Request: fold
Amino acid sequence: MNNKNYRFGTKAIHAGAEPDPTTGAIMTPIFQTSTYVQEYPGKHKGYAYARGKNPTRDALQKNIAALENGKHCLCFSSGMGAIDAVIKMLRPGDEVVTGDDLYGGSYRMFTKVFANYGITFHFVDMNKAETIRKYINSKTKLIWIETPTNPTMQIIDIESVVKIAHEHNIITAVDNTFASPYLQNPLAMGADIVMHSVTKYLGGHSDVVMGALITNSDSLHEQLAFIHNSCGATPGPMDSFLVMRGIKTLHLRMERHCFNGKRVAEFLATHPKIEKVYWPGFPSHPNHHIAKKQMRDFGGMISIVLKDKSVENTFKVAASFKVFSLAESLGGVESLINHPATMTHASIPKAEREKAGVVDNLLRLSVGVEDIEDLLEDLQQALA
Ligand SMILES: *Cc1c(COP(=O)(O)O)cnc(C)c1O
Reply:
């Protein structure tokens, strides 16, 4: 299938999924094998050992590459495994500029793992060009962007950051997990690498942990593929199959996530127990104009700050839902509620966390694709 000629939903269903040549099976088989028989040494059908290559994973990688309009995709056994591979392209002494409102796991990996290998990370306000410039020097090799940010839903202007990176010959990588390829395609804005926690919207059914890296650069792909195979954070064929199946409805799910997200955000904005709603679809959101420029719609991720500041009350609200489930993660069909300060962002020190707006009375919602009336009724009763 020539991906360039098809629109998003058609690619979600068909890209990478050729009928199986031996049987005609329309679904890509789960090649549950660790190795492949060779005719004689070195003569094989392109597959030697399954850490390096697996046909089910190959099909998924082609599919995700098509969704990001990218040339290459590599899938990893988790989103963190994918980020790990990007940072392993660096050397001791190299520096990275990144946001001050990162996914907790990324922050932990940067500060507690790679800082020990002599790589320096600067956590800065990515909405201020002069701040980014201040931290760039001859050792800066990578700018790591996450947008929308988690959980305060800031929107970083990818094109403006890429422009600064290009002036200094620095690689830009974008964690596109929160937007999904349906809402935002950073390669088209000049980014060099797109990263996904496939666990979230791409998988979409809360049943797989996986990551992905997409790039148009042959040279970056070659370096990343080397690390992929050498370090070994590669996913299994069953998970690859499940994600391909999940992606077939990505466009339908995202439409409903966006529809429900808008209704929930509007409902919460006028609720008397709510102090603040973070959702980039509001014209009053400080980065609304950037969201409008670089995203197709505003998504179903929303954070709220309760008027009652006590952690006890926040916990009580978090535990009172009947349709929303209290859990980490996001992007699945089912609605989730999360208390970032003690769950996803617990690895960030309290002072750092609060500076980024992650206060104890903040709750994050991943609005699922259930019936909107049931979600609104659930919010109403939990807040009461
Ligand atoms: C979940 C998440 C990750 C990490 O991905 P895993 O699949 O859990 O390893 C990275 N970035 C963001 C924005 C995430 O939400």
Summary: The mean pLDDT is 96. The CA atoms of residues 158 and 189 lie 7 Å apart. The chain has two domains: 3-247, 250-383. The radius of gyration is 21 Å.
